[in-house]
Each structure stands twice: as C-alpha cells, then as structure tokens.
Amino acid sequence: MSQQVIHPMVKLQRQVQSLVDSKAIKPNDSIWKIALLYGDDWPRWKQELLAYEFTMQDPVGDLLAVEAWDDE
Fold first, then answer.
1. How far is CA 67 from the centre of its chain?
2. DSSP state of 5
3. Residue 30 forms beta bridges with which residues?
4. How distant, in Å, are the alpha carbons of 3, 36, 45, 65 from that of 42?
5. pLDDT tens, 14-52?
6. Alpha carbon distance 44, 7 (integer Å)
7. Which InterPro entries match (predicted)?
8. How much is the pTM?
9. Which CA distances in Å does 14 have to 11, 20, 55?
10. What CA–CA distance (Å, rounded) separates 69 from 32?
11. Residue 63, exposed/middle/buried by CB under 10 A (0-12, 13-18, 19+)?
12. Any idea where the domains of the chain sit in the sequence?
C-alpha cells in the first residue's frame, strides 16, 4: 500500500478554499489577508508564495486557480 504525499501548497490551497467557503475571506481579497489568519506560520507560507512568484497583492482567487504545483 503506497501513500501519496500531498504537496504543501496543495494543503495551503485547501485551507484557503475552506476560508473562502466559510466566507472568512473572498476570492478577490489580496493574499496578504490570509497572513492575519496564519500567525506564526505565515513567514513560511509567504516565502513559499513568493517562490511561486505570487505577490501579497494578488487576489486569493489566483492562488486557488493553480492546478499543479511544480518544484522545478
């Protein structure tokens, strides 16, 4: 039996989608808004997002629209 490892960004995407579904944030809100909800974990997530060329002003919807996270 093999376990599939979920990419960390997929986990973030699912968490952010949950925030949108619960109406805590909106898809057109800027990514920086989720920083308020992630507290001490935010610096790590911010670095990940910057590595994928997101800016903190990009809308959350752009993050949710990514279909595949490549580490190349």
1. 12
2. P
3. 59
4. 27, 8, 5, 20
5. 999 999 999 999 999 999 999 888 888 899 999 999 999
6. 14
7. DUF4327
8. 0.84
9. 5, 10, 19
10. 20
11. buried
12. 8-65
